[in-house]
Amino acid sequence: MISEVKDFPFLKIQGLEFAYGEVKVLHGLDFHMDEKSVACVMGRNGVGKTTLLRNLVGLEKPTAGSIHLAGHDITDSEPFVRATSGFGYVPQGRQIFPLLTVEENLSVALSAAGVDQQLIPSSVYETFPVLYDMRKRRGGDLSGGQQQQLAIGRALVTRPKLLVLDEPTEGIQPNIITMIGEVIRNLVEEHNMTILLVEQYVDFVKKYADTFAVMNRGRFVAQGAVSGLDATTINKHLSI
To answer: Is the dihedral of CA 213, 46, 75, 156 positive or negative?
Structure first.
């Protein structure tokens, strides 16, 4: 587990660039966020948001720039190293194992937990009681909202310091969206977690995030406290 270096942003991305072959997708991104906060990356489809997250968790390798977590340079760290060092990742589309039970889906993440932490934390079931009630059911039998809870719960099994979520409200019914928002705030305020998410639901961001960063064509075009997420920014960069 990474120990924090004081007087340094908890997460710092500097000059980050990435290309798929000859196609440049990310252009010199600079971003930082404080510990125990919620930051949201926003933008229309296809502007590079998921690619940024994949670089952050190590599934892609940047062509330039650096990534620091708690003052430590992790730019060249492999995904498994990041997972065991404090990253939790919930990809877009959930990517649960439909033929495994809920309990088995959660247990998969134990490989990235500490050697002395090889049991599913009770806090996961306390956070998402439906997962305990349905722990013997196959993941594919769950509703979309329940599968999203399972995907988040699986990431929480590793007791992450930084939780990265890619569009957690996509395709989810309104009552589950609200519940996920409240869970996010609780994880920050009660469990000292830091959370970075990609999200397009503006009302959700305004209610549950502390800061935002808007992307357009692989660049950040607006950043700041959510109080600065005004109508002009929304209409220019987020409205369809």
So the answer is: positive
Listed in order, strand segments (DSSP E) in 54-209 are 64-69, 72-73, 87-90, 162-166, 194-198
What angle do helix axes 174-191 and 144-156 make, rounded to 10 degrees? Answer: 10
pLDDT tens-digit map of 126-163: 999 999 999 999 999 999 999 999 999 999 998 999 99
167 in the Ramachandran plot: left (φ > 0), alpha (ψ -120 to 50) or beta? left
The string of DSSP codes covering 107-139 is HHGGGGS-TT--S--HHHHHH-HHHHHTTTSBG
What distance in Å separates the CA atoms of residue 167 and residue 33, rounded to the nearest whole number? Answer: 19
* Interval 19-28: pLDDT, tens: 999 999 999 9
What's the rounded Cα separation, in Å, for the pair 57 and 81?
A: 10
- Report pTM: 0.90
Q: By C-alpha distance, which of 184, 238, 211, 180 is closest to 39?
A: 211
How long, in residues, is the chain? 240
